[in-house]
Design brief:
Chain lengths: 134, 298
């Protein structure tokens, strides 16, 4: 836990302003600064909490830090997240961009993406990140 | 100025009409947008949930690719891409990660060079710069006097720490300013400034579905004919997902106001045709044509 987390005064601003609180009214968002269990996937990343926190904390960033911690501890992250990551590493996009994408672009008069360069670039990039770490 | 558009993955995969209509506006303004064929995804939220360092490096890589083409003004169409590119730029400029990430990028022959003349911004910011905003007004050919609701893209202007000199209303003022030029009247929409909730659909669909249902109800009450988006994530909420709801939950959400990108509305007021703005591929093209023909005495 980062030291500055303790500056949270539990004023409730983040809870009130969070779009998700409208459907989860009992959730106390500041709990995430006090090691209380909170579902870190319930964040739409709107940054309203960050921009309105009187202590300049970012509950949004903390949510993502908790996600990473869970994943580092073996949480698989759900089917959709894994699919996005696989597509990103293979094709450079979260979605299955392919020749059809370029055909649609042609139809609109847009230039084509260099799919081969993108996909080779992504393999090198993720391999270079991996080897840099080890 | 050497300008390039950064489309991002959602625009590339689902909404090339946003990219196309952005180019159309640039052309009307006498500007050339350079096309970079090897940009990738920005990694937003997905990679951030897994690996923060790879996330910064991925965005720094896209910035370095832009620089390798001589680009000094990178214009993002998506809120999330704007956020990720600006965040990586700031992190790299603050120095700590610069050499580490450039070492990784260097293996591909890329390098990000901090440069005060290299700018990254969302397309709303770009088009409302002094000079350009006024020029759009001067080039206006037609009043598009329809009723619209606006969905502000959260990540294009927040967090404010990435946007020095802006206050929390700056972006909204600029987006509304562009819509005002088109002649459209803006209806009150309760969620205009409160997030479309779209990215929740990717991480917890049930929560996402409940969030967007609230927005659909408010949108129907707004009296708008169109919902205007400035981010592909919002377009998913108002264009794609209503049909998922219809199919999956056997409801009739599809009778929502038609979803348009603001660039399409601005393009129309600059005299661009439906097909150059990608509106011929819009699911509601019939309704849109009819509405444009019948509006305010035209």
């Amino acid at each position: 836990m980062e030291m500055n987390d303790v500056t949270c005064q539990q004023c409730g601003t983040c809870s009130r302003i969070c779009p998700i609180e409208e459907i989860e009214p009992d959730r106390v968002l500041s709990d995430l600064f006090f090691e209380k269990e909170i579902n870190p996937w319930l964040c739409c990343s709107c940054h309203l909490c960050t921009d309105n926190c009187p202590e300049a904390l970012s509950p949004r960033d903390k949510m993502f830090a908790i996600r990473r911690l869970k994943i580092a501890n073996g949480f698989k992250g759900g089917e959709r997240l894994l699919k996005y990551i696989r597509l990103l590493k293979e094709r450079g996009f979260l979605f299955p961009v392919d020749d059809d994408t370029n055909q649609e672009r042609n139809a609109l008069g847009l230039p084509e993406l260099d799919l081969k360069k993108i996909s080779c670039g992504m393999s090198s990039f993720f391999e270079n990140i991996r080897t840099y770490r080890t | 100025m050497t300008l390039a558009i950064f489309p991002g993955c959602l625009v590339t995969y689902r909404y090339p009409e946003y990219e196309k209509s952005a180019y159309v506006i640039l052309e009307k303004l006498g500007l050339k947008g350079m096309f970079i064929p090897e940009f990738t995804c920005c990694g937003s939220q997905v990679l951030e949930s897994v690996d923060e360092k790879a996330l910064t490096a991925l965005s720094a890589r896209n910035l370095a690719i832009a620089q390798s083409h001589g680009v000094n003004t990178l214009v993002a169409l998506c809120g999330s891409c704007t956020f990720e590119l600006l965040r990586a730029k700031k992190e790299m400029e603050e120095g700590e990660r610069l050499s580490e990430i450039n070492e990784v990028l260097g293996k591909e022959g890329l390098e990000y060079k901090p440069d005060e003349n290299f700018n990254v911004m969302h397309i709303v910011e770009f088009l409302t710069q002094k000079g350009l905003f006024e020029k759009i007004g001067e080039l206006k050919r037609d009043d598009i006097d329809v009723r619209v609701a606006i969905q502000e893209p959260c990540n294009a202007s927040r967090p404010l720490s990435l946007h020095p000199g802006m206050d929390c209303d700056s972006f909204n003022r600029k987006l509304r300013g562009l819509i005002d030029i088109t002649g459209a009247s803006i209806c009150d929409f309760a969620y205009e400034r409160r997030c479309c909730g779209g990215t929740m659909l990717a991480f917890d669909e049930e929560v996402g579905r409940r969030l967007v249902a609230l927005r659909y109800a408010a949108l129907k009450e707004s009296g708008a004919d169109f919902i205007i988006n400035a981010c592909p994530n919002c377009q998913v909420v108002y264009y794609l997902y209503p049909f998922v709801v219809d199919k999956k939950y056997r409801k009739k959400e599809s009778r929502l106001p038609s979803a348009l990108f603001f660039t399409q509305l601005v393009g129309l007021c600059l005299g661009a045709g439906l097909s150059e703005l990608g509106l011929e591929r819009h699911r509601d093209r019939g309704i849109i044509k009819e509405m444009l023909e019948n509006r305010g005495g035209h």
